Each structure stands twice: as C-alpha cells, then as structure tokens.
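User: what does the whole thing look like in 3D?
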Amino acid sequence: MDYKSDPNKIGKWERFFKWVNGEDSIDSVWEKEMRSKITGKRKKRRKTIEDTIERINSYSKKIYIILSVFITVVYIGILLYTVYELPEHGNPLNPANNEVSQRYIEHGVEETGALNIVSAMILDYRAFDTFGETVVLFTAVICVAILLRRTDEDKTDLEQDSFKSDRGDILKFAARLVFPIVVLYGIYVIINGHISPGGGFAGGTIIGAGLILYSAAFGDEKIKSILNYKSITVTTVSCLLIYFFSKGYSFFTGGNHIESVIPKGTPGNILSGGLILPLNICVGIVVACTMYGFYSYFTKGDI
Amino acid sequence: MRILEYVLLIFLILCAIGATVSKRLLVTVIIFMAYSTVMAVIWLFLEAPDLAITEAAVGAGVTSILFFLTLKKVDSINKGTREK
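Assistant: Here's the predicted 3D structure for the full assembly of 387 residues, as structure tokens:
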C-alpha cells in the first residue's frame, strides 16, 4: 500500500517515529486515524465511536495514574528492602572496616602530611579518581556551552533586557556587603583544605556562588574584564593539565606512587601536605569557573 | 541533641513529600532548597563537615539558582503549575 498518497494513513513505524520525535502525540494520531475511518460511514456510528475514544482516553489516564503509583511503590519497596539487608551501622565486622581504611587512618598524616584525612584520601591516595570527577564537571560545562551558547546573530534585545531590568538597591547593597566575605571564605576553605574540613570543590563552589551574586547585582560589565570566554577556557584547561601531569601517572603505574620531590612539611602548617595544596587550588579554580560559566550560559547564553 | 536530629529527619521527609506534591514549580524549588539546607545540618550531625559545606554551597546555593534561571527561561516562574 502506498502510504504517501494519503496523509491520514501512515504506517505503524512512521507513527512511532513521529511520536518519539515529539511531532505528534500518540493519542491525536490514533484519534485522527479513527476519525478517518469513520468518514465514509453513517453519522449514527460516528457519535458512538467518539464516545469510545473519550472512554478509552479516560481509561488510559487512570491506567497511567495506577501504573505510576504502582511502579513508585515497588521501587520504594526494593530500596527499603536493600537498606534492611545492609549490615548494621557501626559493627566492627562490617566489610567496610578492612585494612585499607585502617591504613589511611593510622598512617595518613605521616604519609601525606595532611591533617584532614578526607583531603589526604581524595587528593593523594585517590587523586586519580578525583581527576576523573573534575573532568566530568569540565565535560558538563562543555555540554552546557554546546546547548546554550548563542552566537551574535541569535541574540535578541528582548532576552538580554529580561536579565538586566530587575536589579534593586537592596540587592546591590547586600551584594556589596556579602561578596568580599563570601570570596574570602571560599579562598580560606580552599587554602585550608588539607588542615580543616573543606577543599577544592567546596571552596570553588563558594567562590562561584559569590561571583554569581556579584554578576546578578552589578551586571557583567566589570566582571567581563577578568572572566571572559577566553580567560575561563585557558585557566580551566591549564588547571586540568597541571592536575593531569602531577597525578596522571597513576594511569600507567597503577597503585604504585612515585615519590614526590615536594617536601611534606609539618602537618598543620599551611605549606604542608606536598601536592595537596596546589591540587586543591587547581580544583577550586576549575569549579569556580564552571559554576560561574553555568550561570552566565543560563542567563545570557555567553560568558 | 538526639531529639533535634529526629526533628530534622522528620522535617527532611516532610520536605521530600512536599516537593513532590506541591503544584507550583517555584514552590517546589524553594522546598528543595530547604531540603538541602536541613541535609547540610544533618551531615554535620553525622560528623561529615566536608559534605556539609559542599551540600550547603551546591544544594542550597548553585543548584537552586540554576533551577530558578531555568524556570525564568521557560517563562514559568509565576504561572508554572503541574496541571496545564
């Protein structure tokens, strides 16, 4: 049968493709077909068929609701059962309490020179894993840039105005007070990452939030002189490359560490912990640039 | 301290239910923000201050801002409801 001669008669697969592409909902396609079927028949039957369509539509809505509730309940049940099956919290015989964590806790300070054992783990013992996570974040900002970046032709005046119009005095005043403290706290969290709780990711996010606040309050005219598309790309990529060249050798050597030439220093000082401090700074810069990049892509479509 | 922990956990569950049930999308995002803030305090009680800082900065800060911006972009910050 030649489907193309009659636009109302489309094949099953074609209809499925249309539905997947979102061009046509499956209900309306189905309804159209039912309507085209009844055109040649008597008007009496048309009414009954329209009634059946409505009835089936209401049935399918009910089935949707019942199925969604059923699937959610089953999912909750599976998760609760898994939690019930987990070993008891705090039991010394748990599989998590093995020699690895014991080694980290007992020898972590002398082997890495970092008092914060979490930082010692993620930036020294498991630095290569953290590199993967940073690359994931970098990939995310690339994807956002691909999806949301607008070239000059796409920009309309209306869209730009909608993010410029509503800047109140309260926002400006609060931003002037809070912005230096936020950024200072972020820098503190990054630099003390190996001594106190925190680290590159947390501090970078705090700095990024501060930059977002500044950009929301005062616009991007001033911030653009420091953070534009080129400088953000260069700093992010160079930080990632520094990270890769200092820790990427684990990819080839496996679990064997190469002895670091940087001295460990006294645990507790800011200049201690070997490579942990520079790596924290690198991760912090990458994360701060990423967060600010997300914000500007979501608002203006460009950094 | 134990009682405060239970109160926070109950509030967490109420927030999770409220975020799924509420009709307006803006309200959902604000409830989600409250969820993250309470979760940060709970991380502190569970002796994970690293996670607490990150949760407060990412969950309550940046994620909510991105949600708000998305709502603004699709023009549903005032009228966005789930039912049409």
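In plain terms: The interface with chain A takes residues 49-50, 52-54, 57-58, 61-62, 65-66, 69-70, 72-73 of chain B (CB under 8 Å). Chain B has one domain: 2-73.
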